[in-house]
């Protein structure tokens, strides 16, 4: 009962459909106005389905400036493991590094690989093509939400947050289990924590040592967000305007690691982990002390921008997806993600 009441008063932990239901008529109104259920599919013309769902990371990485992307290779799941080892070595990777599905979401099957045995187990388990990527050791992880009308030279950085990965800090006495049980967010994810870390729950973490419970900087993976909206300035807008003009990414969220907030604002010393297209939530509504009414206002402003961008691109040569094409694509994406969740 206590957990239920805590979840009830904390809207950030509500089910996706419960949270969005009160404003869903606005979304359907945009569908009616555009004459397409998939009106958003034209928002980012160079990404499958506008980046709403089911797009591969490869098409995103291939369009970003190479110097802004971590070293990445793609591994077919049915390769013999000897070939995987050879590809990893030839690309110059050393342990640890990151692996994740090319088509994935919400941190599903996102793993930090520490050694050959972990890589072997991951490769034997994963049923789809996946990515091997450098573990970016920059100290600051952020998300930047950006949108730009295609006819405008300048866009809007509408959201800027700092991410704190889900972790516990050792005291030299408590086991990982006890630290998880005392953590304000991790304790509500005990089933997931047992699945991922149960084999080391009895380990005692030295005093002051950080133990990461998840390396995925997602809200649904327990990451904590701090709103940095006061840091947004004209210089930062120029950085992302330039990116948008290079890529034709008009609407979405950049997940970034950088040496410092100030460096990112100046456009230096940062790497883009992912760009999430029109399916990305403006995640600055979460974990930042925002009321649900302010969150709804933020979502509605973004939906309006998405509609205007999509309509303009549609009128200028990027057709909306047909109902059947979109329906079939989402059906396949749902099947794909359901399969990944089972393996996760």
Main sheet overview: 5 strands, antiparallel
- The tally of beta strands, per DSSP, is 11
User: Approximately how much beta-strand content do the residues carry?
Assistant: 15-25%
CATH superfamily of one domain: ATP-grasp fold, A domain
What is the 3D form?
Answer: globular
Mean pLDDT: 91
Low-confidence stretches: none
* Gyration radius, in Å: 21 Å
Q: Using the coordinates shown, work out and report the CATH topology of one domain.
A: Dna Ligase, domain 1
Question: Helix- and strand-based class?
Answer: alpha+beta
Q: Helices and strands, in N-to-C order?
A: HHHHEHEEHEEEEHHEEHEHEHH
| CATH architecture level-2 label of one domain | 2-Layer Sandwich
What CATH first level of one domain would be assigned? Alpha Beta
Number of helices: 12
Q: Approximately how much helix is present in the residues?
A: 25-40%
First-last Cα distance = 29 Å
| Spatial strand sequence of the major β-sheet | 9-6-5-10-11
Task: Give a quick summary of the entry.
With 344 residues, this protein is of the alpha+beta class. The chain has helices at residues 2-9, 16-20, 24-34, 57-63, 81-90, 116-125, 176-182, 190-197, 234-247, 261-265, 292-315, 323-343; strands at residues 72-75, 97-101, 111-113, 130-134, 140-147, 156-164, 167-169, 210-212, 224-227, 251-258, 270-276.
Task: Please explain how this structure is put together.
The chain is α+β, with helices and mostly antiparallel strands and 344 residues long. 38% of the residues lie in helices and 17% in strands. It has helices at 2-9, 16-20, 24-34, 57-63, 81-90, 116-125, 176-182, 190-197, 234-247, 261-265, 292-315, 323-343; strands at residues 72-75, 97-101, 111-113, 130-134, 140-147, 156-164, 167-169, 210-212, 224-227, 251-258, 270-276. The protein has a 5-stranded antiparallel sheet. A 4-stranded antiparallel sheet has the order 1-4-2-3, covered by helices on one side. Strands 7-8 form a two-stranded antiparallel sheet. Helix 3 (24-34) runs parallel beside helix 11 (292-315). The longest helix is centred in the last third of the chain and has 24 residues, at 292-315. The protein starts with a helix and ends with a helix.
């Amino acid at each position: 009962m206590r957990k239920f009441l805590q979840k009830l008063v904390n809207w950030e932990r509500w089910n996706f459909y419960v949270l969005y239901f009160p404003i869903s008529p606005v979304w359907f109104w945009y569908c009616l106005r555009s004459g397409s259920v998939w009106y958003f599919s034209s928002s980012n013309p160079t990404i499958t389905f506008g980046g709403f769902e089911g797009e591969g990371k490869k098409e995103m990485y291939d369009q970003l400036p190479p110097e802004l992307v971590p070293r990445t290779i793609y591994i077919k799941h049915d390769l013999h493991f000897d070939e995987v080892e050879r590809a990893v070595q030839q690309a110059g990777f050393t342990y640890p590094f990151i692996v994740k599905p090319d088509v994935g979401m919400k941190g599903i099957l996102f793993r930090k690989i520490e050694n050959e045995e972990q890589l072997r187990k991951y490769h034997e388990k994963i049923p789809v093509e996946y990515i091997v990527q450098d573990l970016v050791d920059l100290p600051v992880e952020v998300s930047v939400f950006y949108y730009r009308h295609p006819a405008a030279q300048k866009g809007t950085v509408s959201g800027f947050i700092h991410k704190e990965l889900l972790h516990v800090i050792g005291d030299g006495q408590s086991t990982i289990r006890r630290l998880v049980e005392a953590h304000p967010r991790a304790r509500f994810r005990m089933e997931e924590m047992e699945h991922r870390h149960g084999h080391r729950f009895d380990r005692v973490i030295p005093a002051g040592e950080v133990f990461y419970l998840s390396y995925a900087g997602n809200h649904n993976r327990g990451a904590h967000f701090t709103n940095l909206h006061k840091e947004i300035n004209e210089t930062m807008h120029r950085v992302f305007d330039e990116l948008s003009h290079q890529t034709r990414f008009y609407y979405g969220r950049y997940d970034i690691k950088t040496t410092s907030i100030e460096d990112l604002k100046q456009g230096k010393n940062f790497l883009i982990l992912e760009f999430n297209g029109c399916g990305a939530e403006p995640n600055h509504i979460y974990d930042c002390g925002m009321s649900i009414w302010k969150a709804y206002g933020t979502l509605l402003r973004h939906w309006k921008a998405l509609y205007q961008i999509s309509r303009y691109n549609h009128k200028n040569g990027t057709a909306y997806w047909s109902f059947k094409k979109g329906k079939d694509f989402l059906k396949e994406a749902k099947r794909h993600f359901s399969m990944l969740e089972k393996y996760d």
